[in-house]
Structure formats: structure tokens, C-alpha cells
Amino acid sequence: MRTVKELSQLTGISVRALHYYDEIGLLKPTEKSGAGYRLYDDKALETLQQILFFREFDIPLKEIKAVMENPVLEKKQILEMQRKMLTAKKERMERLIASIDDILKGENGMNFEVFTRTELEEMADTILANMKEEQRAVFVKKYGSMEAWRSDFLKKASSEEVQKNYQKIIEWYGSKEKALETVKHPGNSDLFPAYQKRLDAVMKQLAEKKGEDVGSWEVKELIGQYDFLTKQMYQMEDATGIMTELADAFLNNPELQKAQDDVYGEGVAEYIGRAIRAFYSR
Predict the structure, then answer these.
(1) Which CATH architecture does the domain made up of 191-280 adopt?
(2) Where are the alpha helices (DSSP H) in the chain?
(3) pLDDT tens for each residue of 225-274
(4) Which helix (H) or strand (E) holds 185?
(5) Cβ–Cβ under 8 Å, residues 53 and 86
């Protein structure tokens, strides 16, 4: 058995944080001594290691708790999930390090390629195969032919800006394979209008709450609905990444703020940005 101080020294997690993990039920001590001191066995240490894997991605504690307590997920499944997330992060770091090495050598600038040309071509062909006739008609009218649309798609998808966006998608989904599959098969497009209609209703309800405490139960409940709808629209297990980036955009992007405020009222974008941050805060 290890005391909370020994566990702190072993893992680098503060004693205060371990006490808090106990308070919220994330990591309970194995037992307590006669004097009331928290004691942890090897199984508790293993659980803490899993928690720390998730914390590496700044996932909120309540989300980690939900995953750890999910009766459907076994220990092996959780570890496989974490391995995919860490592998995606490792691959990104390796690409960035390689790009920096090239710059130091005086060679090419940073390479942000996420999906290769072959993968992009496969993506375009899959999108074409699943495209509805009315969508094809729109693109033929705009580009002149579907081949012209395909060429334009590949050109734009190869750009640095779009590749950076693909990198974000990989981080959101946890692996390159799952992200590629999602981009190729975005889901039932008929459902999107329904989800967007529900999101609009949530936004209007949040607009009515403007001025209230973003930490209130009512506001958090609405952001929870927003989170759920986002997961459904994009077929995600965890929408933390995309939602926190949305919050940053609501708070820091003047164009997006104006667009949202024009629809929902002055100051609503900033308020919702703060509400999303509060919902996902540690």
C-alpha cells in the first residue's frame, strides 16, 4: 500500500489533486488507515495511470470519469482507445519534428501534409460514389463537369490550410483511420437539417439565458444538449475537442461573433463561448 504522499511522489500528481480525485469519485483510495490516511494499492496506481493518459489530451475530469465507469468498456478497450489517441499525437509530433529538422538544415519549410495524395483521391472517389444526383447537378452547373469538381477538390484538399483542418479532425476522432472514414462517409445528409434545426433551438434558448451565470445548471444542461447533438452529427464518441475550439472561435473570431450575433442577438456568441468553456472546464 502507498500513502497519498508516496503516490504523489511516484506519479508527479499533487496531493491536492489526488484528494480532489477522491472527492469526485474518480480515484478512490483502496482503503484508509486507522488514523484516516488514504492508502492505494497497485490496482489504484494502474487506474491513475489510465487517468493520466486521458489528461494528456486535456479531457475534462467528468468525461474521464464517465469513460472509466462505462460498464460497456473493458480495461483492454480503454487502453486501446488511449493507444490510438497517443499514436495520433505521436505521429503529429514526429511530423513537426521532421519539419523543424528540415528547416534547421535549410531545406523545405514545414510540411503539414496529413492525408497523402492517394488518400485524398480515395476520399474524392468515395464522396463521388455516395453523392446524390441533385448534388451532382449542382456541382456540374458550377464546375462544368464532375471531373472538374474532383480536380478542384484535390487541389483544395492538398492545401496547407485544409490539411491543418484535417489534423484537427484526427485529434477529434482519435486516429487517422477513423478520421479518414468519417470524412469519406459523413453520414446521412438527410439528418443534418434536422440536427441543425435542433441546434438552432438550443442556441435560441442559450440566447435567452444571456446574462445569467454560465455555471448554472440550466445553462450547463443546454450546453450538454449542444454536446450531444455535435456527437450525433459528426458521429463522435467525444466532442470535447471540437466544442472547445468552437468556444475559442466564439470568443476570438470577430467575423463569427458578428454572424452569430446578427442571428441570435448582441453578445450571444461571447456568452455561449464562455458557457462552453465553463462546461468543459477542469
Answers:
(1) Orthogonal Bundle (1.10)
(2) 4-11, 15-23, 42-55, 61-68, 75-104, 117-129, 133-143, 146-157, 160-173, 176-184, 191-208, 217-234, 240-252, 254-264, 268-280
(3) 888 878 766 666 777 888 888 898 899 888 889 989 999 999 999 999 99
(4) none
(5) yes
Q: Which residues contact 66 (CB under 8 A, 6 or more apart)?
A: none
Q: For residues 219 and 275, is the Cβ–Cβ distance under 8 A?
A: yes
Instruction: Please give the CATH topology (third level) of the domain spanning 2-57.
Output: Multidrug-efflux Transporter Regulator; Chain: A; Domain 2 (1.10.1660)
**Per-residue model confidence as pLDDT tens digits over 187-230:** 544 556 666 788 889 999 999 999 999 988 889 889 988 888 78
Rounded to two decimals, the pTM is 0.44
Residue spans of the domains in the chain: they are 2-57, 112-186, 191-280
Report how far residue 45's alpha carbon sits from residue 30's, in angstroms, rounded to the nearest whole number: 10
CA distances from 107 to 33, 60, 100, 112, 160 (A): 61, 40, 10, 15, 18
Helices 160-173 and 75-104: crossing angle, nearest 10°?
160
Contact (CB, 8 A) for 115 and 157? yes
